[in-house]
Write a structure and sequence with these properties.
single chain; 7-stranded mixed β-sheet; two-stranded antiparallel ribbon; 27% helix
Length: 208
Amino acid sequence: MRDSPLDRAMLDVFAEAVRAGAGAGAGTDADADADGRTGLVADLGCGPGHVTAHLHELGLRAFGVDASPAMIGLARQASPELRFEVGSMAALNLADGELDGVLSRWSIIHTPPRELPAILAEFHRVLAPGGHLLIGFWASEDASHPTQAFDHAVAPAYRWCPDHLAALLRESGPTGSTGLTEVARATREPQPTDRRQFKETHLLARKP
């Protein structure tokens, strides 16, 4: 995080938006905890939990979810005071409208394109009205190809056209309802020292 000023800036913006929404009554439990933190946020695909811990430091009631038990073990070891759970982004063990915020930071890159709409619908389901999603991903640059596959050490991975992903967010709600509306985006150009010469994009979206 120290070497990623854009990441830190977008997380700051996200945290402020979540706190504002929680103060307006988003979520099912908007009260501050004993330490004054407010805004219940799930860090989905949290890995070893360092970003979850950063959200906690920003004053949010953050917890992490990851499909890998090994990663959850590392997260619990690093931050034993925080909540970490093994789970799937496609079937979250959360009530409808329970969250003030969802963070998905590079956690969709291994999601096959045909499966992404269902995951975005799950994000929409667990967010309260007024809640925010911050989603980060590697961006493709050819608008005629909404996704571009690339080799990755773990599993096949995908880059996404930002406009296409924003359109999928708008369509993430149940039939007849409004999905997630983009409120901001930021793009980082690849740096010479980056292992992958891809643009990084962050989309901030809100559930009406």
